[in-house]
From TrEMBL, chains A, B:
Its main location: cytoplasm. Its EC number is 6.3.5.3. This is Phosphoribosylformylglycinamidine synthase subunit PurS. Pfam families: PurS. The keyword Isomerase does not apply. It is an enzyme of class 6 (ligase). GO terms for molecular function: ATP binding; phosphoribosylformylglycinamidine synthase activity. GO terms for biological process: 'de novo' IMP biosynthetic process. Belongs to the PurS family. Keywords: ATP-binding, Cytoplasm, Ligase, Nucleotide-binding, Purine biosynthesis.
């Protein structure tokens, strides 16, 4: 997701469109990316550390984006 | 996220780049979007139904994408 201090024009566009479509009560919208990564074998701590490294080096731009990694079996 | 039967060239590009960066063991990558929506007041069933409707009509393209809605307090 874009860091809180980073402008997010896509999110703002969505937020602007919502009232026109009849949706109210939304105070903020942020748009980011989501990656679903399928792995071979067991998710060990070492594998998870590798996925964190992927997220940091390839999947996100750490200058402007935060990321979280979560595991689904 | 793109539906399973939909081609995902961005995900495939990421998957192709991973071995070149030294990451192994990844069998599939899918790239989609994530929206963080802040709401005014309590998240009731009615509000949640409205957010589902937003996801279906504005935030996703239901022809090619699936979506899930989850609540974080």
């Amino acid at each position: 997701m874009p860091k809180p201090e980073i402008l997010d024009p896509q999110g703002k566009a969505v937020q602007g469109a919502l009232p026109r479509l009849g949706f109210t009560g939304v105070t903020d919208v942020r748009q980011g990316k989501r990656f679903e990564i399928e792995l071979d074998g067991e998710v060990t701590d070492a594998v998870l550390a590798q996925v964190e490294k992927m997220a940091e080096t390839l999947l996100s731009n750490p200058v402007i984006e935060n990321y979280t990694v979560s595991v689904e079996q």
